[in-house]
Amino acid sequence: MEYIWCGIKEAFKIILSFDKEFIGIVFISLKVCFISTSLAAIGGVSFGLFLTRKKFLGRRFITTILNTLMSLPTVLVGLLLYSFLSRKGPLGRFDLLYSISAMVMGQLILSFPIIAGFTVASVKSLDKRIRPTILAMGANSLQEFKMFLHEARFGILAAIIAGFGRVFAEVGISMMLGGNIKGYTRNITTAIALETGKGEFALGIALGIVLLSVSLIINILFTQLERCPSEHL
Amino acid sequence: MIKKIITLVFVIEFAISFFINNIFAEETLKLATTTSVAETDVLDYILPPFEKKHNIRVHVISVGTGKAIKLGENGDVDIIFVHAREAEDKFVNDGYGINRQDIMYNNFLVVGPENDPANIKGLKSAEKSLKRIYNSKHMFVSRGDNSGTYKKEKSLWLKTGLNPKDKKWYLESGQGMSATLRMADEKNAYVLVDSATYLFHKNKIALKVMVEEDKKLLNFYGVIQVNPHKYPHVKHKLSQAFVAWLISSKCQKMIQGYKKNGYKLYYPAVGKLID
Question: Is some CB atom of chain A closer than 8 A to the CB atom of B5?
Fold first, then answer.
């Protein structure tokens, strides 16, 4: 038990002293996840709204695929992209393996279906009369898109948060495509994996605390937003 | 119309992620090395003077020797720093690498639980100790990957004529050297480990050194540039300068002076002949 206490004590020391390596790792995690989630949000939300817009052939099929991809194993994404990005692979000449680009791509693939899938679900839970009403009022596609974006905003925000949570906590893609390079692609999760393997718990625990706090903060912000009167949004 | 927009968004997104690297542009050198070197922090000590002088960053990718060589063969890195002489020579002979240099050395150790159930403590022969471990059926943790340590272990087993694979007491961790050593410590098992990794962790684990005095256990780390004729994109000049730095007397002295927990982990290899 004692060494766990020591680890926790050390962890707080690291956090409070703003240890340079520690801050760097947290910053890398936030940076990469922010970029990948923003990209996935733009694409995923538009795609989700498009899917719910009209009935067309294969829509149910696409939705099923989307739901399946929501539980995509990270190592599979890693494996797939690795084979594409290696010098021997079709995208090899762009020199992307073991870089932030590669991590972003992997995380984009990971969070896109989650954001799109949750967007579909949130739009489906809205009042069915919205669409015929606004169409009868003569809305064009852009106005229709905006309207749904507004009506389903909480669901969409939840979708984006879910996407962010997924990429922020994943380790497979970061390890396989980022390569855990110190000061460049070593993020919170890969650092924890490494430190635990080395038996150095302090930095691992410190990073774990950050990992949890970020999720907590985001969720508090979200519930606060939900409580606000709608005019403020 | 909307279909077009969505396709466009898709394409733009992937294009953006292609260029994200350029935002954080830095001149870099990609170095693939073994987990034993990367996890004993020696690179944190000998890289900065080189990085400062050439104003670049060395990106260290920590994998087993087998994987490091594979990365070199695919042209995914500029330079490799590994420890498996046979595989290194093959890498050079097959035309993937040039300018191989010995940089530093230490030795492998057989470590195990203090009560020594296989009775190997103090043996002068690694083979004999493995034979006794085999007969005692006491647990042994192997890397089980393609790392330099695993290659060494395999060659030792081969010499004993025994095959521990698929035995109940023979575990393959499939992880880096530190993690494997830790696993052996948790399981009170025997393990073959390089002395740098062992000394790095010595204060925190219970395993003790059993066998060390065997010439066959010497462990040389060599650096090899990836052949620019095979892969024109590799940073030949920089990696050449990197090798020159590693074999320079200044860096060799730094390696000599590098200590962790009061132990010397590596010895400079330049000028030292291998038997």
Answer: yes
Residue type, A32: V
User: Does A98 contact B30 at a Cβ distance shorter than 8 Å?
Assistant: yes
Q: CB distance B9–A42 less than 8 Å?
A: yes
Q: Do B16 and A39 touch (CB under 8 A)?
A: yes
pLDDT in tens, A101-136: 999 999 999 999 999 999 999 998 888 888 889 888
Nearest-angstrom CA–CA distance, B242 and A99: 21
Q: Tens digits of per-residue pLDDT, B196-229?
A: 999 999 998 999 999 997 888 999 999 999 999 9
Instruction: For residues A134 and A144, give the distance between their C-alpha atoms in angstroms, rounded to a whole number.
Output: 7
**A41 at the B interface (CB within 8 A)?**
no
A-chain residue closest to B22, CA distance? A101
Cβ proximity of A31 and A107 under 8 Å: no
Q: Please, which pLDDT band fits residue A230 given cuts at 50, 70 and 90?
A: low
For residue A208, with 0-12 CB atoms within 10 Å meaning exposed, 13-18 middle and 19 or more buried, which class applies? middle
Q: Are A168 and A215 in contact (CB under 8 A)?
A: yes
Instruction: Check B6 against A47: CB less than 8 A apart.
Output: yes
**ipTM of this predicted complex?**
0.81
Q: Report the distance separating Cα B55 and Cα B53, nearest Å.
A: 6
